[in-house]
Amino acid sequence: MKYLIALFFICFSFTAKSQILNAESLRKVTDTSGFSGSVSLGFSLKRDVNDYFAFSSSTHLQYKMNKHLVLLKNDIELKNIEGNKFENAGITHLRYNYRFHPRIAWEVFGQAQYNKVSKIDFRGLVGTGPRFKLTTSENYKFYLGTHIMYEQEELSDGVTPLQRDFRSTSYLSFSLYPTETISLVSTTYYQPKLKDFGDYRVSNQSSLLIDLFKNFDFKTTYTFIYDETPALGIPNSQYNLESGFVYSFD
Fold first, then answer.
1. pLDDT of amino acid 104
2. Domain ranges, ordered by start, for the chain
3. Structure confidence by residue, pLDDT tens digits, 185-234
4. CATH of region 3-247, choose from 2.60.40.10, 2.40.10.10, 3.40.50.360, 2.40.160.40
5. With contact defined as beta carbons under 8 Å apart, do 119 and 157 qualify?
6. How far apart are CA 163 and CA 231, in angstroms?
7. Could you give the CA distance from residue 237 to residue 120 in angstroms, rounded to a whole number?
């Protein structure tokens, strides 16, 4: 007998399969100090010619106090067919901001991730740099970040050796608020290797949010990633489109 049971509590703003995490998606706009964030779980169970099981979890915490801001994001995704794991991915990102000027903050961040589909056994990085607020209007906001990061990457393609490199990581982000219930957020990253600018990554993530009622939004997100030198057998470009409901707390 065929059956399908699926339950999704939330669709988060980026998937664990993304190779470049959009740190702007972690920031929760709030005027209050203290903790805020979101938690989500999702799973599905299906039987047809095979047994299929998938599980995902996403945790986002933010702590804000005066000029200090700490962000933590942890995502895990597991998929299983007939008892064999065929896709799993995870990412943990920690970021600290210190705002020493009304329009300038200094950021320090660290990240660890793995992605079986993209043949990334491990990618770890640490970085730092300034973040500039380019506008003062509350109806639209533009930000620019220019950072340097050190990255270690281990691929499972059987060809690429262990890589340790410095990369530039710059982003341009904007948020538009055409009405009180609609917002559009988009961020573009550019990450070239410092010793070889021909080895670079570009990504864009754009999200449309519609406020339904308190703490609940409907969200549609499109993510595009281009990697000039991916693991052997992995395409240069990847994209993802998803929609769902977002619950946040503060």
1. 97
2. 3-247
3. 999 999 999 999 999 999 999 999 999 888 888 888 898 999 999 999 99
4. 2.40.160.40
5. yes
6. 12
7. 15
